[in-house]
Amino acid sequence: MTRARSERTGAVVRTCVGCRRRKGPGELMRVSFGEEGPRLEVRGGRGAWICRESPECLEMALRSKRILKALRVAGGEGEIEAIRRLFDTGAGGWQSGRDG
Length: 100
Ligand SMILES: [Zn+2]
Prior knowledge:
The chain has 100 residues and is an alpha+beta fold. Helix content is 30%, strand content 24%. Mean pLDDT is 83; it is low at 96-100.
């Protein structure tokens, strides 16, 4: 379990597996892998964090496979596609909320 704290505020920060910037949990989305595949914002298990509203970060995380490493998933293209689909459905947040 890696849990870093920002020295200035003492708040919990997480590292985006895409751009590797450190942010608070509220600015990031949590991806985890369940028995049925990737899930968003589900507690439990090993999680990887990606900036909200940032398809670029997702793309970097997928291309580098850092997201699979973070999740300890011994995966390949199938897992990467599954994660990509998860975000394509709009569950990732950057497609929902843009209709206004
Ligand atoms: Zn990021």
